[in-house]
């Protein structure tokens, strides 16, 4: 195999080094765990999402074991917004995970997947009365309250149905997570959480309100964080807050530490569970707290890829990178258009790796200039009919898909070992308008 792929460019070698679950086989091409992506592309077509159950389970267990090694009592609540497919929730529930939800729909989805209400926490800045009522009636583990106004509304609803609501106050610590500005949540300018300086006063108020059971605090500073430094800053501020609350006679038993653990899309360092666990043990261990975390991207991101086929190789002149138009688009994976996100791209067939490399522009077919997957990416020359894999697409991929440009939703496949199964069929064209209704009073066609 070494001689067969000896001419790989350094950029591809580096990508394979940072993605140990991807390997090149001289006969099967690109393997995702044990799964042949060429076989999946041949059987299921494209565009197609592929979730590897083995990789997902291994990542969950790596995270879980890191906390157990530090003898920490940590509840892992999977952040469903990253990818809420029932099959994924079912798998994680069987591994012992709970769920971090941000809507009533996600609550019902988590319950459908068999996640116990005792393992569900409800985050989000704009919970409606109906959603809060559902959460109280279901008696989930905790509601992460984001404002004084929400706290009072929650008390009113809880009284009306004669049940108590267990709460943590989500605190905005005004800590810069050093991540993309669109996924930063812990700065004072962000909409999330209760201002740090108001936290004690609002927590006292929670104790005085009827049908409210205060558990403690919640802090979440952002997403795609690789360094432990922002977490250290946030945790130190929360330690001071917890000590002050306890000094004033207020019980604090729980701290939800949020999530946001980063992965290596390109050349970033992936967040290390052992380093996070060590930090939590050092800073939070002495406080005798029940701890929680809310990982999403770190678990599911590297566990998924998006298979796409080259539709056209479009020359842009002898001195410019050609445009490679693929059948996946921004309606499938919106992250590059929304965040200018970088995703690794690798050909699937082994034969492609024998071709000369050149700078390529990888674009989708949607009628928008932002439908871009890569610019000047050094890859083997790609031709119509070739399949590629867009990497780290398990998080914020299929869950954010749309049918823009009347493009049906892609198929979703789950693999384990050499097994594969459809977990969501490819949407048909007719499905796009089956629920659309023309008003009865509108003039009929003659």
What topology emerges from the helices and strands here?
Elements lengths: L9 H9 L3 E4 L3 E4 L2 E2 H8 L3 E5 H17 L4 E6 L6 H10 L2 E4 L2 H9 L7 E3 L6 H10 L3 E4 L2 H14 L3 E8 L21 E2 L3 H10 L3 E7 L10 H19 L6 E3 L16 H12 L5 E4 L3 H4 L3 E11 L8 E4 L8 H5 L5 E3 L9 E7 L8 E9 L6 E4 L20 E6 L2 E6 L22
Parallel strand pairs: 4-20, 5-6, 5-13, 6-7, 7-8, 8-9, 9-10, 9-11, 11-12, 12-13, 15-17
Antiparallel strand pairs: 1-2, 2-3, 4-14, 14-15, 14-19, 16-19, 17-18, 20-21
Question: What do you see in this structure?
Answer:
Residues 57-299 form the Orn/DAP/Arg decarboxylase 2 N-terminal domain. GO terms for molecular function: diaminopimelate decarboxylase activity; pyridoxal phosphate binding. Keywords: Amino-acid biosynthesis, Decarboxylase, Lyase, Lysine biosynthesis, Pyridoxal phosphate. The chain is of the alpha/beta class and 446 residues long. It has two domains: 10-52 and 301-432, Lyase, Ornithine Decarboxylase, Chain A, domain 1; 70-295, TIM Barrel, CATH 3.20.20.10. Helix content is 28%, strand content 24%. The chain has helices spanning 10-18, 37-44, 53-69, 86-95, 104-112, 129-138, 148-161, 199-208, 229-247, 273-284, 297-300, 335-339, and strands at 22-25, 29-32, 35-36, 48-52, 74-79, 98-101, 120-122, 142-145, 165-172, 194-195, 212-218, 254-256, 290-293, 304-314, 323-326, 345-347, 357-363, 372-380, 387-390, 411-416, 419-424. The strands form three sheets. Strands 4, 14, 15, 16, 17, 18, 19, 20 and 21 form a nine-stranded mixed β-sheet that branches. Strand 14 (304-314) and strand 15 (323-326) form a beta hairpin. Helix 3 (53-69) packs parallel to helix 4 (86-95), helix 6 packs across helix 7 and helix 9 (229-247) packs parallel to helix 10 (273-284). It is globular, with a radius of gyration of 24 Å.
């Amino acid at each position: 195999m070494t001689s067969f792929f000896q001419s790989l460019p350094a950029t591809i070698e580096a990508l394979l080094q940072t993605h140990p679950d991807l390997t090149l086989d001289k006969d099967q091409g690109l393997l995702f765990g044990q799964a042949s992506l060429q076989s999946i592309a041949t059987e299921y077509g494209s565009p197609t999402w592929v979730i590897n159950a083995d990789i997902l389970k291994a990542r969950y267990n790596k995270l879980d074991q890191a906390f157990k090694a530090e003898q920490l009592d940590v509840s892992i609540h999977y952040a469903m917004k990253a990818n809420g497919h029932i099959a994924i929730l079912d798998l994680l529930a069987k591994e012992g995970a709970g769920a971090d939800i941000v809507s009533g729909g996600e609550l019902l989805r988590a319950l459908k997947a068999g996640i116990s209400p005792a393992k569900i926490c409800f985050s989000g800045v704009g919970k409606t009365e109906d959603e809060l009522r559902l959460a109280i009636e279901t008696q989930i583990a905790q509601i992460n309250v984001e404002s004084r106004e929400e706290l009072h509304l929650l008390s009113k609803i809880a009284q009306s149905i004669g049940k108590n609501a267990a709460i943590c106050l989500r605190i905005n610590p005004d800590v810069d997570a050093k991540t993309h500005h669109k996924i930063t949540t812990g700065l004072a300018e962000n909409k999330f959480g209760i201002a740090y300086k108001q936290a004690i006063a609002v927590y006292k108020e929670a104790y005085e309100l009827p049908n409210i059971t205060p558990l403690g605090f919640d802090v979440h500073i952002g997403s795609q964080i690789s360094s432990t430094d922002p977490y250290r800053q946030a945790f130190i501020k929360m330690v001071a807050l917890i000590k002050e609350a306890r000094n004033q006679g207020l019980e604090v038993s729980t701290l939800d530490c949020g999530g946001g653990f980063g992965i290596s899309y390109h050349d970033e360092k992936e967040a290390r569970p052992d380093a996070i666990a060590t930090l939590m043990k050092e800073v939070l261990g002495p406080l005798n707290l029940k701890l929680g975390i809310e990982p999403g991207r770190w678990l599911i991101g590297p566990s998924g890829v998006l298979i796409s086929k080259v539709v056209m190789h479009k020359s842009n002149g002898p001195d410019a990178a050609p445009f490679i138009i693929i059948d996946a688009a921004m309606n499938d994976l919106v992250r590059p258009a929304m965040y200018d996100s970088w995703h690794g791209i690798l050909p699937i067939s082994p034969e492609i790796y024998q071709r000369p490399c050149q700078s390529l522009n990888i674009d989708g077919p949607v009628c928008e200039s932002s439908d871009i997957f890569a610019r000047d990416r050094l890859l083997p020359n790609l031709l119509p009919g070739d399949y590629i894999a867009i990497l780290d697409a398990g998080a914020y991929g299929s869950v954010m898909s749309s049918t823009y440009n009347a493009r049906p939703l892609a198929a979703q496949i789950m693999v384990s070992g050499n097994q594969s199964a459809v977990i969501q069929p490819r949407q048909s064209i007719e499905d796009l308008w089956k629920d659309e209704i023309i008003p009865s009073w509108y003039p009929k066609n003659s």
